[in-house]
Amino acid sequence: AQSVTQLDSQVPVFEEAPVELRCNYSSSVSVYLFWYVQYPNQGLQLLLKYLSGSTLVESINGFEAEFNKSQTSFHLRKPSVHISDTAEYFCAVSKYSSASKIIFGSGTRLSIRP
Amino acid sequence: DADVTQTPRNRITKTGKRIMLECSQTKGHDRMYWYRQDPGLGLRLIYYSFDVKDINKGEISDGYSVSRQAQAKFSLSLESAIPNQTALYFCATRGGRDANTGELFFGEGSRLTVL
User: Fold this and answer.
1) What digits encode the pLDDT tens for the residues B82-111?
2) B100 CB near a chain A CB, below 8 Å?
3) CB pairs under 8 A between A and B
């Protein structure tokens, strides 16, 4: 069965500092990978996704994630964070063969200090 | 109006009571999902549905049942609520051209407290 591990439950950083949120998945077959963001008191929104092709994917607000098949990782990065990035971030995975079944990680709470 | 609407938004009930959470969508999507969110555990999949005749169990379906009354409606029931079912429940949809790879669209959540 597929599973997703987010190694850090909380990540505090200073504004304008770089950040990396880690995500590892376990699956013996090809997968689709996603990052979702949940702002306070809201539902989740898609941030970016990896389906195939280039292993580096980007979002419109400066986040990027790199698919690393050998390390089964899909870490999320941003070179310079802003207060507005304060949110909880969830990594998610689905297998090619059962793409409708989407499994989420436990989430990483990103807190930005001024 | 929201594309994915959940009712009720908040509910407090007692152990042993039957509870139904409802979800309706105006996106025309065929796939619908129920997740529960608990602090430190993220979102866990309860049930998902491809259409009115296709219901699938997720990671944690025990103690829950669902009904897909129409393409636009997907209800989650707790036949006999227990305190460890206290959580924030999310409905989500997916469909269109990217039914297998596209974005999940989430409702605003239903907070359930079981005393």
Assistant:
1) 999 999 999 999 987 777 788 899 999 999
2) yes
3) 55
